[in-house]
Amino acid sequence: MGLACAAVTLSLVVQSRAWMHTTGKLHVWYHLVLFGVLGALALRASDRLSRRIAWLAGVLLLGLAIEMLEERGILSAVEWGDVLLDCWGVALGCLAVWLFSGTSKAR
Question: Domain residue spans in the chain?
Fold first, then answer.
């Protein structure tokens, strides 16, 4: 929760957007890593499939909400490419959890 709150807060401050490289060459990596970590945490949040899906949907909605808040707060258009990057980050985070959790080993 703290990581998500920090991401939202920092993405709404114009000076922090430059500091976090949200306009430069690290922009893609920022989205992939942040949402990869959030996706991995969401997947590990519960053992129940329905709760995992709910957490993952929440993370994806967070990515969309950040873009919409940025549009309203700093008057920039919604960057759908960023939303797509967030989705890819969540998918990579889920893949990492699956690969490194030991569930992928043959029994």
Answer: 13-100
> Which positions ≥6 away from 39 have C-beta within 8 Å?
56, 59, 89, 90, 91, 92, 93, 94
pLDDT at 53: 93
Rounded Cα–Cα distance for residues 107 and 94 (Å): 21
CA distance 42 to 20: 23
Q: What is the CA radius of gyration of the chain?
A: 15
How far is the C-alpha of 38 from the C-alpha of 24, rounded, in Å? 22
Please check whether residue 74 is in contact with residue 57, taking contact to mean a CB–CB distance below 8 angstroms.
no
pTM for the structure as a whole: 0.71
Three-state DSSP class for residue 50: helix
